Amino acid sequence: MSYINLSENLVPLTISKLMQMKQEGQKITSLTAYDASFAALFDRIGIEVILVGDSLGNVIQGHTSTIPVSIRDMAYHTECVARSVKRAFIIGDLPFASYTSVAEAVKNSASLMQAGAQMVKMEGGSHLQEMIEVLTQHGIPVCGHLGLTPQSVNTLGGFKVQGKTADAAKKILEDALALEAAGAQLLVLEAIPSSLGAQITDALKIPTIGIGAGPDCSGQVLVMHDALGAFPGRKPKFVKDFLATTGTIEKAIALYIEEVKKGTFPAPEHCFVSN
Ligand code: KIV
Predict the structure, then answer these.
(1) For FRET with 125, which of 70, 169, 175, 180 sits at 20 to 30 Å CA-CA?
(2) CA 22, CA 204: separation in Å to the nearest integer?
(3) What pLDDT, in 10s, does the model give residues 100-153?
(4) 7, pLDDT greater than 60
């Protein structure tokens, strides 16, 4: 396991660097973080993208979904993370119903950027195109999020794998192309068959970051509590507890980085297949 020596590697990650990594076939490593201490640790060990996810509604606040999370919560945790990160690229998640109009999206994205995010993430497909164009014009980089979009748990009818039929897969691929055309510079793909994760990654110029989307995405992200075995209840199929075999948080995160870089995580047992 190798740790990044920050004294030799203090160049902050940018979206151009992440794009270059995709072009060169280097896997991108990402984890969520919500506070200064874990963010600093992940940054020091070499995680490239830190997502201040609205999953904090589940893992920090104890809700059963991300729906109760507010923009104030997100800005607060983004500030905590941004204060301690020196190298990683920071994404702030726009929470439920904080981007129902272009004006709301600009106002709420601005508060995440002013809190220290370098990009905002929003869940949804082609209906977000105009919003993404406007945000990008205002200097706010956007990460899309397709597949299982937890803010829509009530319209999806639960936390279910998406894109399993040919028609559903086609719609997700079309949405991915629409988001890229609108100016999105990164795309999270959650809980879709590995074959669809590979197809979308191949069809796009921008990097894809998978969570339950197979090994062929440009990078991988996990909720930090899941990667450290601190999931309440049933373990989702796409999760691996990296602490179980390593014994310290530092070694667990280093192992996660190593397995993502080598392409051995996610393994077949963490992946979904089409119908
Ligand atoms: O909120 C979050 O942590 C996320 C990841 C699951 C991708 O959106």
Answers:
(1) 70
(2) 10
(3) 999 999 999 999 999 999 999 999 999 999 999 999 999 999 999 999 999 999
(4) no
Q: Is 17 exposed, middle or buried (0-12, 13-18, 19+ CB in 10 A)?
A: middle
| 119-123 and 28-32 strand pairing | unpaired
Cα distance between the two ends of the chain = 38
CA of 9 to the centre of ligand 1 (A): 27
Q: What pTM was computed for the model?
A: 0.96
Place of tokens 């803010």: 151
Among residues 41, 56, 140, the alpha carbon closest in space to that of 96 is found at 56
User: 6 pLDDT exceeds 70?
Assistant: no
For residue 93, the ligand 1 atom closest to its alpha carbon is: 1
> What single-letter amino acid sits at 232?
P
What is d(CA 195, CA 173) in angstroms, rounded to the nearest whole number? 11
Residue 9 has what pLDDT?
61
Nearest to 221 by CA among 48, 69, 19: 48
Q: Which of 79, 190, 250, 258 is catalytic?
A: 190
Give the burial class of 45: count Cβ atoms within 10 A of its Cβ; 0-12 exposed, 13-18 middle, 19 or more buried.
buried
Asked if residue 30 has its Cβ within 6 Å of ligand 1, the reply is no
* Mean pLDDT for the stretch of residues 235-250: 96
Cβ 221 under 6 angstroms from ligand 1: yes
> Do the beta carbons of residue 81 and residue 33 sit within 8 Å?
yes
The protein residue whose alpha carbon is closest to atom 8 in ligand 1 is 53
Cβ neighbours, 10 Å, residue 205: 9
